[in-house]
Structure formats: structure tokens, C-alpha cells
Here is the input.
Amino acid sequence: MTAPSEHHWFKSSYSGGSGTECVECAYVPHRTLIRDSKRGGGPVLSVRPEAWQHFVDAARQGSAEGDRGGEA
Here is the structure.
């Protein structure tokens, strides 16, 4: 899937703004789109919103707890 330009793409609030951001997302009905911010016209990963929310929640929990050495 390539990145349709009509979607509202956004970067994480944790992005530095120096052009080194890695991920952009766009919410569309029944899907979350994810792409490399440096390759806006490149491939797009499309996942169910529930899967994306689970990933974001896990990332936040890991960030709050620090690096646990790969433990799940």
C-alpha cells in the first residue's frame, strides 16, 4: 500500500522536530495507517485500531517502567 496524500498524517509528540522523526500515523475508518516520515510516498502499514492501541499502550507502559531487558 502506498501513502495516500489525502490523509491527515501526524508525528508523535515525542518527535524532536529536527527531521529525524521515524513514524507518522493517520487514522482512517476501521484502520490506523503507519509510515516512515522520511519516505512519505513509500509503503504504509495498515493495522486495526485495536492492535495499534495495544501497541501504544505497551510502549507507554514500557516507557514508564524503563527497560526491563526484553521481559514481556
Q: What stands out?
A: The beta strands are 10-11, 23-28, 31-36, 44-47. Residues 21-65 form one domain. Residues 32 and 47 are 5 Å apart (CA to CA).
